[in-house]
Write a structure and sequence with these properties.
Number of helices: 9
Oligomer: single chain
Largest sheet: 6 strands, mixed
Shape: globular
Structural class: alpha/beta
Strand content: 15-25%
Strand order of the largest sheet: 6-7-8-3-9-10
Length: about 250
């Protein structure tokens, strides 16, 4: 039996560095995310997690090293960044919905402007995605009429409507009231079950334990530990991770 060639990583960081002035936030990150895998990045505030995520589609410009998406070096000057970004959905801590547009308008806008879909096609895709996140009945509501959890699910539907090959989540539940977190996490769990490649910055240890293929612990701009969730979360090797988990689990 012939061995199959290893697939190209969906996301690969090679020696990634990022500085803001004299403050080096990322200090040479090497990390890969395999296709259809979920990688959760955990760590204290200021450890570099969100900066890493924002470098993934060059919302932040890396200072050094490279970022490869499906084998394409997006830090190369000849890279068609807009084309690559179409394959990357991103959900932020804040929902970033347009308050003057109804839910349906929020989910169709980028489809029409970026993908040039017709209004009819964009609306059909939008309704399909709203059904996927459990919000079919809210298509004609304005964001102000929704709870925070519902707004975040609309933001996920908006990202999914662009047919991304991978999704980035930056603390997607941290701005929500505790009782609203569950619905958003369930949508993310379903995406994982459906085989979506996901890079997730999160404080939700339960989600990381149940859903992640790999957990990455960052501290002060470097990766201190990474591995399967049961290894990283149940049997931490470094005192820094032990301390972090103790603090997180106290709250």
């Amino acid at each position: 039996m012939t061995a199959t060639a290893p697939s190209t990583p969906a996301i690969e960081f090679r020696g990634l560095r990022k500085s803001f002035g004299t403050n080096e936030v990322l200090k040479g990150i090497d990390l890969t995310v395999a296709p259809q895998h979920v990688v959760c990045v955990i760590g204290a505030s200021g450890s570099g997690k969100s900066t890493l995520l924002r470098c993934t589609n060059r919302l932040e410009e890396p200072t050094g090293g490279s970022v490869l998406i499906d084998g394409i070096d997006i830090t190369h000057p000849d890279c068609d960044l807009d084309l690559v970004r179409r394959n990357i959905g991103m959900v932020f801590q804040q929902f970033n919905l347009f308050p003057h547009l109804k839910v349906l308008g929020n989910v169709t806008l980028a489809q029409r402007l970026v993908l040039r879909r017709s209004e009819e096609e964009a609306q059909q895709v939008a309704r399909d995605m709203l059904e996927r996140v459990g919000l079919s009945e809210k298509a004609d509501a304005f964001p102000s009429q929704l709870s925070g959890g519902q707004q975040q699910r609309v933001a996920i539907a908006r990202a999914l409507a662009m047919n991304p090959q991978m999704m980035l989540f930056d603390e997607a539940t941290s701005a929500l009231d505790p009782e609203l977190v569950g619905d958003v996490l369930e949508v993310m769990r379903q995406l994982a079950r459906d085989g979506m490649t996901m890079l997730v910055v999160t404080h939700e240890m339960g989600f990381a334990r149940r859903v992640a293929d790999r957990v990455v612990f960052m501290d002060q701009g470097v990766i201190c530990e990474q591995g399967p969730p049961e290894q990283v979360l149940e049997h931490p090797e470094t005192p820094r991770l032990q301390q972090f988990l103790e603090q997180v689990l106290e709250h």
